[in-house]
Amino acid sequence: MNIEVELEADGRWIAEAQAIPGALAYGEPHEAAVAKVESLVLRIPADRLDHGEPAAEVAEVFTVNA
User: Fold this and answer.
1) Is 19 a member of any domain?
2) Is the peptide bond before 29 cis (omega within 30 degrees of 0)?
3) Which uninterrupted H or E stretch holds 42?
4) Residue 66's pLDDT is what?
5) Could you give the number of structural domains in the chain?
6) Could you say which DSSP state residue 11 is in?
7) Model's pTM, two decimal places?
8) Has residue 17 been placed in a domain?
């Protein structure tokens, strides 16, 4: 999964994983922003599953054998 990182005018870094809506995080330094968005990439689909919502991203991770 690609993570895009940009330096904002206020000196903070913003990291975004566009494949997961809502996976966007600020941090300082650069590595902190990346670490935060990586954590969100894992949490967001898990939270959706916990709430009975679809999480298409998970289909790429698991294979269920009946």
Assistant:
1) yes
2) yes
3) helix 30-50
4) 75
5) 1
6) S
7) 0.81
8) yes
State pLDDT tens for residues 7-65.
Answer: 999 999 999 999 898 899 999 999 999 999 999 999 998 999 999 998 877 777 777 78
Q: What tokens does 65 get?
A: 């054998």
Residue 37, token pair as written in the block = 């968005």
Query: 19: how many CB neighbours lie within 10 A of its CB?
Result: 13
Question: Does residue 65 belong to any structural domain of this protein?
Answer: no
Residue 51 token pair: 């709430």
Q: Could you tell me how far CA 60 lies from the centroid of its own chain?
A: 15
Q: At residue 41, what is the residue type?
A: V
Domain extent at residue 9: 4-59
Q: How far apart are CA 57 and CA 44, in angstroms?
A: 10
CB 16 within 8 A of CB 26: no
Whether residue 66 is contained in a domain is answered as no
Distances (CA, A) of 10 to 13, 44, 53, 54, 65: 9, 27, 36, 36, 50
